[in-house]
Amino acid sequence: MQFALVIASLGLAGFCGLLARRLRRLNNLETGLGGAIAVMASEVDRLEKAICAARDEASAAGEALAVEVRRARGERAAWELRQRIGDAAGPNARPARSRRLRKRMESLDA
């Protein structure tokens, strides 16, 4: 019985040695899986930073576009109001000019 236990323990010791050697090779940072994991972890970090930067840039562009759309809507409403005022004044009415434009026109006529 003791002889069988000694044989079994020697077999397990050899198996543990084999597993330890394989684990060392697997965790080698240059050629093993450990190196691949380290490279992948750094790539994931880099991609996360790129995604955050792209998200921030898209948010800023969306906000700028919203401001431009609001400004364009305001300009269109003002243009439509001018058109309505012009139509209401009649076909022979002279379009109203701003003070600055009138001064320029007067200086050009002189």
Strand content: under 5%
Give the N-terminus to C-terminus distance in angstroms: 127 Å
Roughly how much helix do the residues carry, as a percent range? over 70%
**Class from helix and strand fractions:** mainly alpha
What overall form do the CA principal axes indicate? rod-shaped
Please give a structural write-up.
The chain has helices at 2-26, 33-89, 99-109. By secondary structure, it is mainly alpha-helical. The model has no long low-confidence stretch (mean pLDDT 85).
What's the topology here?
Elements: H1 2-26, H2 33-89, H3 99-109
Question: How would you sum up this structure in a few lines?
Answer:
The protein is an all-alpha fold.
List keywords for this structure.
about 0% strand; mainly alpha; about 110 residues
